[in-house]
Design brief:
Length: 173
């Protein structure tokens, strides 16, 4: 079944359509959650996201792609979990930890994702929101209750850490 037909059936509570839609998008949506949270929390956020997707699917108006709509729900769920855990996104000092690099036989993409996942939490969150999800610094500042300058500096520091890791021959190019 095509995605639009599945969505229509899901608005009517069709469990088979929900299952097919879940199978179509679950992997990518879980990967989004893993960009922000550790595995256990990502699993919870992923489950909560699907509950919200199916509860609110009749509110999907098709103004964007369905995957974009779901990703926004997942990102918001991850950010809410971080807030509930009292994770604060403030300026980190200049002595913030750097990435520990190891030799890996993974693909370049998988290794880069590993490096991003090991950024300090604030840096990782801002990096993901800006570089991967495409939010502006203004939007990030509002989402995380920080100022735009903090968002910009955390992005710059995240990029610096990643650049240093790459310059240390993490990738054998």
């Amino acid at each position: 079944m095509d995605e639009q037909v599945l969505i229509k059936h899901c608005t009517r509570g069709n469990r088979l359509a929900q299952r097919q839609l879940y199978e179509m998008h679950a992997g990518r949506l879980f990967a989004v959650c893993l960009r922000y949270l550790q595995r256990e929390d990502a699993e919870e956020a992923h489950s909560n996201t699907w509950v919200k997707v199916f509860q609110g699917i009749d509110g999907f108006r098709g103004e964007s792609k369905f995957s974009t709509w779901m990703t926004r729900i997942a990102v918001n769920e991850c950010l809410m979990m971080l807030r509930r855990k009292n994770v604060f996104f403030s300026e980190l000092d200049e002595n913030a930890p750097t990435l520990q690099t190891e030799e890996h036989e993974e693909s370049d993409t998988a290794h880069l994702l590993h490096l991003i996942a090991n950024l300090p939490l604030g840096y990782r969150t801002v990096f993901n929101l800006y570089a991967i999800e495409g939010y502006s610094h203004k939007e990030i500042a509002e989402m995380l209750s920080i100022n735009e300058g903090t968002s910009k500096s955390q992005l710059a520091r995240a990029r610096g850490i990643l650049r240093n890791a790459l310059e240390k021959n993490v990738f054998k190019i």
